[in-house]
UniProtKB/TrEMBL annotation, chains A, B:
Species assigned in the record: Marasmius oreades (fairy-ring Marasmius)
Domain PRMT5 oligomerisation: residue ranges: 352-608
Positions with biased composition (Low complexity): 548-558
Biased composition (Polar residues): 533-547
UniProt-annotated catalytic positions: E320, E329
Stretch list, region Disordered: 531-558
Name under which the protein is recorded: Protein arginine N-methyltransferase
This protein's UniProt keywords: Methyltransferase, S-adenosyl-L-methionine, Transferase
Pfam families membership: PRMT5 (PF05185), PRMT5_C (PF17286), PRMT5_TIM (PF17285)
Gene3D superfamilies, per database record: Divalent-metal-dependent TIM barrel enzymes, Hnrnp arginine n-methyltransferase1, Vaccinia Virus protein VP39
Keyword ATP-binding: no
Gene Ontology terms: cellular component: cytosol; nucleus
Length: 610, 610
């Protein structure tokens, strides 16, 4: 079944006479017979000044209203996958496409373009207005069917019937997403066929990876270049005369070992490499490479880095244990075990990493996650190459000026961590110092349905060399890096968020002696007065890479106890109490309007094994 | 696990310095060691004027905040039945208990009363302040454990330690609900053991009722008294000389037949009774009573009233086919079939009936409905004697003045209905004229969680004689009637409603050739400006009984198509379109904040068989 939604006509009178949220629903699509809203004047040149601002606001409200109707219908139809959408782009679109982003998270199958939508260019050929052009180019990611109509009615002086479809083909060929997909080496090209496909995250600590997995990840041209650069700079920062020991913790089939050797050669330093690996299959490859390539430069050590002993302590510990959310493949726990290998002044590459979150709308991902009829599938974080998604948050503090940016930092891990109590073997007696929690406030500028959260990571390898899949910073830190798709934290039930609302997200990283897991929960609010609270927004902290870090969150992580765990000692708990009273001040002026359940309580549905 | 929630201290400074929503949570209850909020002055005499109003509003906001904390915790715990609540009534309560009603829908297991809560009466004995007295008396319905503390600290001049518990026993003995339960013949007495117990509604058309079921319902002293009175008055309104024919459609074991004969005798009219019954077991009883009691006055007819033929047409058709929601046991369909028996000027007793709805909060009922791990159980209306429930709606139009009263009328059925097209046998060819729909707007004054809807009916038997289980009118129309508990329409997922929100409920009665079912759906809104729309609130219509009918809804039912049915012709559809444009005007100034799913779409989970 297809449903046609007509995006609203640009109507400066709409402030007095808003279009009904129900009038946007037309009957089923019949190409060449697109319905027309009678009596609505179409202005391509908007009036000036305040009236223009009002008209734009009203237009946005109308586009929101058209989406509201769609949302109500598909909710009532329980996200049935047989229900898809036809967008009628006949009416002109606003210049700012922010409000249209929400359609990218919906099942848009047809886009209807009557000839009357086209304007004439200087030569008299039919072309589309700029905003419609941009929207069509962006929509090409979803491969919609474009339905042209009235093309034989000679509305334009030049080009005839074919000019319309030729122009659409031109838009497709110049679409940024189509171009990126065709470019060898791009993430979009690499990820073809994986878009919006849910993958369970790897458990490299519990499971031994297959050779094909290593091979896939070894292909990444950017990740290992940055690792080599980080090791190279770390070597340069050490005196030439002294022997330097490097330990690669988790060497796999050896890509980091090779990069370390290359960095040693380039930096002209006297250094030796230990390579630790627990996977016997990968170790065979390492042994082969030692014989054929690395004679005398490398020593191999077989075993778990949390248990084995090493001949001498290292100056530089190099590891590649990061997951899409940073710590989600248990890098903190593994490196805790390997810190015994490090000299007092030794360093870790990576030296730190942070986890980042953003609220996401995607009917596709929601439907994928619930297609397995099991609670577990809706409480498991997945690795996903996002495509039909819309990040619901906006930059700016929201009505109350109390919200952080569009994508927000949850927490950070640093290595080596000097403040942990160690037992006689040099290991931490419990894992509670690796628990984390964050409470993030997002501004939601446009109405939308929350289906889950996008998770990203950013790592500092050494100095200003890093790795990032943060959507706003990845291009300046590690452009074209292929190894990580983002994480998707689903919700059991969608949560409707009105325009100008606030979303308060709580996320925890919790642990017992055998497992690590995440729990997540969210509440929605509306501002009931316009007065910002006395809380000052925090200053941004300096960043790696060339992009400035726009996060308003503190650089040190914040902590709060899990709702289900009584007895865990969480470091910084006194700070959490202070934040609670901040929280109560923040509640002043906010009206709660909804909440999700607590997801994955006590790790019942998903966890990583230690 | 018990959770202690301390109802907030009366604090006039609270406007400047609101209590944290989290500070209300104390540790587990330890009797005799109730926690005290430090530094909060307790005023038993509130200050006057505007300051007093502000203080009361702030106090209500704080009680709301205490409940918010509880709601968040029990949601996070997924309504675990092992989680119960201890209320600390130490601080004084406000004079208006409206804001406390929400606790009646929660699992309050303990009420803590430190001796300091008690004030001294004229003689120096400890007594409770009036609002606390009332709250305790009302709470006795749930049989909480009362935890007294500090009773040996000699805070009061007279009575000693025992005076506190003696006083509580006195409150219990004088509790209206306890008194009602002890009174023979009251609904509360009759319903003992059935409180908050979900029963599937009867299907007397599809199933033949058991003898024990007839026996239970024949005990109702009020229902049959009102039926006799209605028949009596109908007879009085007919001339004495003419022979009058009464037909009892669905005679069961004969209670209505007996009442008709009694009415004939009292009214001194020349009348004859036909009794139609389809249940062969009940028919045996009827035959026995004909021989022993009704010789010559009654003729029995065996068969379905929609199919049998009758010797002569009737002046008065008497039936008792009503369910808790009026039409939910298919009275409209059965009476359609029996209208063939009626003379052109004949009447039906009942002559009309209406269905009524109110939004309900009850964690108990929600937990009961979902205890069967099946979608069906959350899309089935149940018959329930309500106890641990709270009706969330308030009277008054809400912020926007567009809402109806606390309990609202959905639709009406009238018999005989003269405008239905009939086939050659005198039967309607389809059942579409018995479809109904309603869109109801409720004002929600206090924050709460919507778990479903309460359904009630009211019937006009004849003139101003009726039957009603409408909570505000039953006592004036049919006090102490036992036969019907209300209906409960559950929700699949609870819907959080903030204070001063609006709830728009859609409910449909739909039909195909074999089944009749209900569908329901709700959306929540907040008012974004204080301006009432240009819609005028509708005038109330005159009512039966002595109570005035406070409904603001039109007396004729309104119609709208089902979201899932395309091709049903619904009478009054043109009217529905007009209402849609009203609806769009109403949306002006409202911000949608949430919605439920559509329940029981296409009758997939529950239906009545024709």
């Amino acid at each position: 079944m297809n449903l046609a939604v007509r995006l609203p006509v640009y109507d400066p009178h709409a402030i007095q006479d808003p279009i009904s949220p129900l009038s946007g629903v037309a009957n089923k699509v019949t190409p060449n017979a697109t319905p027309v809203v009678p009596g609505s004047p179409r202005l391509t040149t908007p009036p000036n000044g305040q009236k223009q601002i009002n008209a734009v606001k009203s237009l946005e409200a109308q586009i929101d209203a058209a989406w509201e109707v769609w949302d109500l219908i598909r909710t009532i139809c329980e996200y049935n996958t047989r229900l898809s959408l036809a967008l009628d782009l006949g009416p002109p679109l606003p210049n700012s496409l922010d409000v249209l982003n929400k359609w990218s998270a919906e099942a848009v199958r047809y886009i209807c373009l009557p000839a009357s939508t086209f304007i004439a260019n200087a030569k008299g050929y039919p072309v589309l207005p700029k905003p419609t052009q941009t929207f069509i180019r962006d929509s090409m990611a979803h491969r919609p069917n474009i339905v042209l109509s009235s093309v034989s009615s000679n509305l334009h002086a030049r080009g005839g019937e074919d000019a319309y479809s030729q122009y659409i083909k031109h838009l497709e060929a110049t679409s940024p997403i189509v171009l990126a997909t065709r470019k060898a080496g791009s993430v979009e090209n690499f990820a073809q066929g994986y878009q919006d496909f849910l993958q369970a995250p790897l458990q490299p600590l519990m499971d031994n990876l297959h050779s094909i997995t290593y091979q896939t990840f070894e292909q990444d041209p950017v990740k290992y270049r940055n690792y080599e650069e980080a090791v190279y700079r770390a070597l340069l920062d050490r005196p030439q005369a002294v022997r330097i020991v490097i330990c690669v913790a988790g060497a796999g089939r050896g890509p980091l070992v090779a990069r370390c050797l290359s960095a040693i050669q380039r930096s002209d330093r006297n250094a030796f490499v230990y390579a630790v690996e627990k996977n016997p299959n990968a170790f065979v490859t390492l042994q082969h490479r030692l014989r054929s390539e690395w004679q005398g430069k490398v020593k191999l050590l077989f075993g778990d880095m949390r248990q084995i002993t090493i001949d001498e302590q290292a100056d530089i510990l190099v590891s590649e244990l990061l997951g899409s959310f940073g710590d989600n493949e248990l890098s903190p726990e593994c490196l805790d075990g390997a810190m015994r290998f490090l000299k007092p002044g030794g360093i870790s590459i990576p030296s730190s990493y942070t986890a980042h979150l953003a609220p996401l709308s995607s009917s596709k991902l929601y439907n994928e996650a619930r297609s397995v009829k099991d609670l577990k599938s809706l409480e498991t974080p997945y690795v996903v190459m996002f495509q039909a998604v819309n990040v619901l948050s906006g930059d700016g503090g929201g009505a109350s000026s109390r919200c952080g940016p569009k994508v927000q930092e949850c927490w950070e891990f640093e290595h080596p961590r000097r403040d942990v109590v160690l037992d006689g073997r040099g290991l931490p007696p419990t894992n509670t110092h690796n628990t984390r929690s964050a409470k993030l406030n997002f501004h939601i500028p446009h109405a939308g349905v929350l289906h889950g959260f996008a998770g990203y990571f950013e790592a500092v390898l050494y100095g200003n060399i890093g790795l990032s899949i943060h959507p706003h910073r990845k291009n300046s830190i590690s452009k074209d890096m292929l190894s990580w798709f983002p994480l998707f934290f689903p919700l059991r039930e969608p949560l409707y968020l009105p325009r100008n609302s606030e979303l308060h997200v709580s996320i925890w990283r919790l642990t017992n002696q055998r497992q690590v897991w995440y729990e997540w929960h969210a509440e929605s609010f509306l501002s009931i007065d316009g007065t910002p609270s006395e809380m000052t927004t925090r200053q941004s902290t300096p960043s790696i890479g060339t992009a400035s870090r726009s996060s308003l969150l503190p650089s040190s992580p914040s902590f709060a106890s899990s709702p289900l765990i009584d007895a865990v000692e969480i470091p910084g708990e006194r700070k959490a109490q202070r934040e609670d009273s901040d929280y109560s001040r923040m509640m002043d002026g906010l009206l709660k309007i909804g909440h999700t359940g607590l997801h994955n309580a006590d790790g019942r549905s998903s966890w990583m094994g230690l």
